[in-house]
Write a structure and sequence with these properties.
Blueprint: H1 2-59, H2 65-90
Helix pairs in contact: 1-2
Length: 91
């Protein structure tokens, strides 16, 4: 009888651990989905900024250094955000 009680206890522990792992898996999948949405949004933003730079470049043959620096800063910020999200996904 003790053996059955011991096995029953171990089975309960395994079932609890399994339920915990399922919950963690669900949470991690939700996190990945959220980060993928952020990545998609940032890609759209990069494309918009890139298209804006092309438009500005085509509209003006000479962009003043301040405007050029501002565009570079914006793109660098978006790229840095994408890098952080990709690093988080890889962890």
């Amino acid at each position: 009888m003790e053996t059955l009680d011991l096995l029953n206890g171990k089975l309960d522990q395994l079932l609890k651990k399994h339920a915990g792992l399922i919950a963690e898996n669900k949470r991690l999948r939700a996190t990945i989905d959220g980060q993928n949405k952020v990545i998609q949004r940032l890609h759209k933003k990069v494309n918009t900024l890139d298209n804006g730079m092309v438009s500005v470049h085509l509209g003006k043959t000479d962009i003043n250094p301040e405007e050029k620096e501002n565009m570079h800063r914006q793109l660098d910020g978006v790229i840095a955000e994408i890098d952080k999200i990709l690093n988080t996904l890889n962890d």
